[in-house]
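[Solved] Which block belongs to which protein?

Original post:
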Amino acid sequence: MEWHVRGGRRVDQSISVGNTPRGTEVIVESMPYLHTVALSVTATVGSRDERKRESGVSHFLEHMLFRGTESMGFREVNERIEASGGYLNAYTTHEFTCYYAFTIDESLKVAEDLLADLFLHPLMDPALVELERNIIKQEIGMRMNDPSSHLRTRMNEALYKGNPLSRSILGTPSSLDHFDSRFLREYHRSHYHPPHVVVCAVGNVDPRRVMEWATRFDDVEGKAAPKGRRTPKQNTGTHFFTKESDRAYLGIGLPAYPAPHPRAMAQSLLTTILCGGTSSRLNHRIREVEGLVYGINMYPLAFRDCGSLLTYCSTSLEQVPRLFDSFGQELARLKGEGLEAGELEKAKLAQKGSLLRNACRPDQNMSSHLHHFLDTGKVQSIEEHLEEINSVTEEEVMRAALDILRRERVCTTICAGQGMKEKMMEAAASLDF
């Protein structure tokens, strides 16, 4: 076992990074002044690792691991964690599946035992597979009937078509029908192995204890299946999807920087300037001044090998041309005139405020450390994060703007009634910046 520090010097935070003999990565931030611990174990396999016929299996596995283990049923799992003052949860992304507990320090052993048992010895009872299949189909239906979720699903489908990133993390009702207990067991056996396992703990916990716990995930037979991820070619053009409504749901995607890129923070600050709050450029113009939307959102979707800048909103059908016009004018103004006085400093303070308001919560720090490590291979302290924000110059933000905000690279997604297709496509074609 080996401990070392990645991503910078030790500062006020006590952050340790190490690995077990078989390569399970271990991240620990000790906060001895607290009485809580957030603990997670993550399999670095997600929806972009799935073949088409496997679409949704990573998320399905996430559900099944909470359906009991070889030694206890799911009700006992729930009762034990709740009786100990904690809770268990999980989530699946394009690139990993994280299982975590947030509990009080005196009950940490209960969380350790339950997380390890769920991760290593899931029951995969055939009757419960059928039950969970129906639950996830309900989740898919609910997601697709929520206009914002439906739009984001279609945005990925349009932008990344031809790559697994285009597919929903949930899979489809038809793909779920191919999963049985035997298939799920095999997928679990093939992928939940070191070195594709990361353990992260934050709170009142000794790093040596976490390292000892992490070695439980070394004690598995076999070898992890290799991942064959392909960097996507990001599509352009306008993509129309029929969704009967008296509104139009609009998505605008652009290729952007991957997570480890030197200008990734400049990209993040650019996003804040454009759409980071009520007084940001797009929100002020499109919502506050023109009243075209209830809200407009923009965020970078960044992976190790690629990235996108995604904007989404909805408006009434007759307002679509004006919305595209206003959106394009604001981007063109930024590119042509540069930043306003004090605008970058305001964006920096907004990002620092968001960081520091959540900085002392173990569950938030655990999630932050895990995401940053998986995206960049490094762990970043709060001081290092602040230093990175502070170091960005106006020139770097403008370089990012000119790199990313390029009209010829736009991928527009529109969800509206079929009868509006021609008018919507015409409005999208007028977008210019």
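(Second protein starts here: sequence line, then its structure tokens.)
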Amino acid sequence: MSAHGEGFLLGPVQRKIVAAALSFLAVILIVSLALLVFFILQRVVSFFSGVIWPLAVAGILALILRPLVKWLERVFKLSRNVSIIVLYAFVLLAGCGLLALVAPAVISQVTDFVNDAPTLLNNAREFLQARYPGLLDNLRLEWFREYFDTLLEGLKQMAAFSMPVIREAGVWVFGLFGATAAVAIIPIYLFYFLQTDRDPTHDLGQELVFLSPQIRQDLLFLMREFATILVAFFRGQLLIGLIMGILLATGFTLVGLKFGLMLGLLIGILNIIPYLGTILGLATVLPIAFFQPEGGWILVALALVVFFAVQVIEGYLLTPKIMGKQTGLHPLAVIISIFFWGTALKGLLGMVLAIPLTAFFIIAWRLLKRKYLTQPQEAQTV
């Protein structure tokens, strides 16, 4: 044994150093490959976002609505296509009825908001002028200088920039047309997605025969977990956002906040992305409550009470009952993940998918750590 040890080029300490160095290089290589894949994915998502958006929306809606289609088939003995058409008709009629009830009041409040915006701004100006006399003068002077310089520079370069501006306008019109077409094609994608019961991950194992059975099984498990998280999150978040919108709209209207119906429903819709609606809502509602006619600190306090009451209902009743512990993420992790994925995927798509993606990677990390990074108990006892 000693002769074998003496004949080996490296001693025990050197072997440990080499093993540590190789492990470190392996970690660097894995991280580099992960960053490369992430960078490529970011570029692909950003470049093909116009194509991905309709497919993603239709896919998520199909996962959410498929149980309803199966229920129509089972209860009313309808074919799959007829069940989908019935579901489309129900959604269309319900949407039209809801619009007939809510749209006139919302449109009226939007019009009032546009008309009253100068009054609100004037009230804010008078308040700041009374409390901080010199502040607005300094801000106005600096703003006027910047505005004048920008305007002068724009006039000088108007002739040179005329053609690029026209081209940009054409690009904008084309982009608007593309966005409209993308929205219009979602029902078509959804129809075909609902036609089939085929599990997207069912035949995936046959496409991964080049992997070992254990790795193939783990990948299929992760794909199914991601689909489950995706469905549970969007199904629950849509329902929670709708209920929050109704509660906020009712509360704001009762306390006398102008445009309360419009703001409440809008904040509820924005809460599909957790905390986004609340943050933007506070930044919008509180100034309106303070500067609207007959507004003030009392109305601000009442608006805060409505916000607090709805948040309590959402945190202690809606989310536990509807969402349960599907994601298991800490609120701070939710906020960080929204900003991270919104930046990583460059836009709203990343913010919308932030929670499912974060939960998926947490599950993937736990699986990787348990099955591949943690030494077996037998090896630890030897």
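Accepted answer:
You had them paired correctly. Confirming on the second one: The mean pLDDT is 75.
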